[in-house]
Design a protein that fits this description.
The structure is a single chain. The protein is mainly alpha-helical. It has helices spanning 23-45, 51-81, 86-114, 118-124, 134-145, 150-163, 165-177, 193-199, 205-221, 223-244, 251-256, 261-273, 275-288, 312-326, 328-339, 376-395, 407-427, 432-467, 474-488, 500-503, 517-536, 541-549, 556-564, 571-591; strands at 180-184, 187-191, 343-344, 356-360, 365-369. Strand 1 and strand 2 form a beta hairpin.
């Protein structure tokens, strides 16, 4: 049955009733504070060699973690839906402080784990209460060895609230309050960053150019603030790494993503070897648009004569239908997400830019945030976020500590879902022109992952190199950004975006440093998975679920070896995976001769 008249505003009331003034939320947060005090006492007295005491603490840490996640996710939703919600911002600040105490608990507990000898540790992990958590506990024990003492790491966590995370929160606040003037249909409007960002992919070259000029000017006006925020975020990280005697700025992001430097290097090398194909696409697109070279805003510009507009209801039904072909369970889950109003998609001012999916582990629900304006790209984003939501859904019955999967494999599930919908859109196109437009929309995402994301990675790597020697000026940040874009796009563009470092939220996220390469990993990893799904159809569904359920308790190399029989440190897997994108470009070039 087709879905109709769907709400584009999410329902948060069943999580905590009352929004930022919720008494239920206030009581919940108070109980978390009490829980932390009680658990600290339990950790203090815990004998790490006693498997029963250790297992009891692990279970309590798991319960506390899920409760803190629940409240933080809820408040994050409140701030996202209304950046002017001062009460929610204040609660987020309180949760940040509580989070620092929580992280200090983990640091204290991890130090306890290091007091156990290696042989005794192996024996402990064989007990029923600890065995299910063996991967996570081994990981945390190893990381503890590489960090500072408990007192020093606790001090870092405490100082991070106002000296690290606060810069990220302030950036969110400033961006959310930005109001950018833009003339449309003879009327002067004040648009949010997210609303104006949607104009950058308009059918009209003139609209794109005006939007880009307004966008660039707005960020230029904020460049001094953004420079301060970015420099101090990086300075905090580098100072912490220096005290830990870590010699690579990539050590932490690689650890978080449970992948090796060899895998990362191999992935980028294979991409670089295939970039010439995508340069041909960019050149052909420039020719079609009557340009000598594409400008920054032309890369994502539609090539059709009319913009395809899709209603929210149409998008929902299309996504559900396409998921059903390969993953009936994911299709049914998505129907539930739409019907129960788990998605905030309304196109309005006051929302923060971008999109995300967040989970509520105790309620066993998820919420999706985006701004839907009816473009094919919006439909893809919606499918992408539903992929995230489904990933969490299949993890719900696992112990909470085993649900902590890294960003790169999280992007695998979302991108896999996006691929299902994008391919189906191309295959079901009603006209040759529509087919070409949708095919090109797919290729745009490949270019984003192989070139735009690569530019971000190059910029951030080089920025940290220079930041380690001192503050990096606005002019130098602009230079680094443009140099990275030129290299990543193989000089194929005639205009770049020097202030991209200021406008991209991902550079200011403190939870995950280097919020870039995991996207590209997820895209290519999912391409390999998608190829298998196309061969096996819905028979692959249970295998896919098994793979997703292991994402919180394996390295990516172990995951690929177990479920795909592949070695990610070798180029063969990546070369096969990128062929799907290469074939899209070859078809595009053939259709546009």
């Amino acid at each position: 049955m087709k879905l109709t008249q769907l709400s584009q505003q999410w329902n948060l009331e069943n999580i905590f009733a009352g929004g930022s003034t919720s008494e239920q939320l206030s009581t919940y947060i108070q109980s978390i504070e009490t829980h932390i005090v009680e658990l600290k006492s339990k950790i203090d007295s815990c004998n790490p060699s006693n498997h029963q005491e250790l297992a009891e603490v692990v279970e309590e840490m798991s319960r506390l973690s899920s409760r803190l996640h629940e409240s933080s996710a809820y408040v994050g939703c409140l701030v996202a839906q209304d950046v002017k919600d001062k009460e929610a911002v204040a609660i987020r600040g309180k949760l940040d402080a509580i989070g620092a105490k929580y992280h200090s608990l983990w640091t204290q507990f991890e130090e306890k784990l290091t007091q156990v000898s290696d042989n005794e540790w192996k024996t402990l992990l064989q007990y029923d209460g600890l065995y299910p958590y063996s991967f996570v506990l081994n990981e945390r024990r190893q990381h503890a060895v590489e960090k500072l003492s408990f007192s020093q790491e606790s001090l870092i966590n405490d100082l991070a609230v106002d000296g690290y995370h606060a810069w990220s929160n302030l950036y969110d606040l400033v961006v959310g309050k930005m109001s950018i003037p833009f003339e449309e249909d003879g009327e002067q409007k004040e648009l949010s960053v997210g609303q104006l960002d949607n104009k950058l992919s308009s059918q009209s070259k003139e609209t794109r150019q005006r939007a880009f000029e307004s966008y660039s000017k707005a960020w230029e006006e904020q460049e001094d603030f953004c420079s301060e925020a970015l420099n101090h975020l990086a300075g905090f990280r580098l100072s912490t790494y220096d005290h830990r005697k870590w010699d690579s700025v990539l050590k932490e992001p690689l650890q978080i993503n449970r992948m090796s430097q060899a895998t990362l290097d191999t992935m980028w090398k294979v991409i670089e070897q295939h970039k010439n194909t995508f340069v041909k696409y960019l050149d052909r697109k420039a020719e079609m648009l009557g340009l000598e070279q594409l400008g920054w805003t032309d890369v994502d510009a539609p090539i059709g004569k009319t913009e395809t507009k899709v209603s929210y209801d149409e998008a929902a039904n299309f996504i559900i239908d396409q998921f059903k072909q390969y993953n009936p369970k994911m299709s049914e889950f998505s129907r539930q997400a739409f019907e129960k109003s788990w998605i905030e998609a309304e196109d309005r001012t006051g929302k923060r830019p971008g999109g995300f999916c967040t989970s509520f582990p105790n309620a066993k629900e998820t919420r999706i945030f985006m701004t839907f304006s009816g473009t094919p790209s919006n439909v893809s984003t919606l499918a992408h976020e539903l992929g995230h939501a489904y990933h969490q859904h299949v993890m719900d019955e696992l112990p909470y500590l085993n649900q902590n999967y890294a960003m790169n494999v999280a992007e695998t599930a979302s991108t896999y879902a996006e691929m299902l919908v994008s391919d189906a859109a191309v295959e079901t196109a009603k006209t040759e022109e529509e087919r070409l437009v949708l095919l090109e929309d797919k290729i745009q995402r490949s270019v984003a992952f192989f070139m735009n994301i690569h530019a971000r990675f190059l910029f951030e790597t080089r920025f940290y190199e220079e930041r380690s020697k001192g503050l990096v000026s606005v002019s130098r940040l602009n230079e680094l950004m443009e140099e990275a874009q030129k290299e990543a796009y193989c000089d194929a563009l005639g205009e770049y975006h020097p202030h991209f470092w200021a406008s991209k939220l991902h550079f200011y996220i403190t939870d995950v440093p280097f919020y870039n390469f995991p996207y590209t990993f997820g895209y290519l990893f999912s391409a390999g998975i998608y190829a298998i799904a196309k061969e096996q159809g819905d028979a692959f569904e249970d295998k896919y679920i098994a793979l997703l359920q292991d994402t919180g308790r394996m390295t990516v190399e172990e995951l690929a070896e177990k479920h795909l029989g592949e070695d990610l440190t070798k180029p063969q897997f990546w070369t096969r995976a990128i062929q799907l994108a290469v074939e899209d470009v070859e078809e595009f070039l053939k259709l546009t001769k």
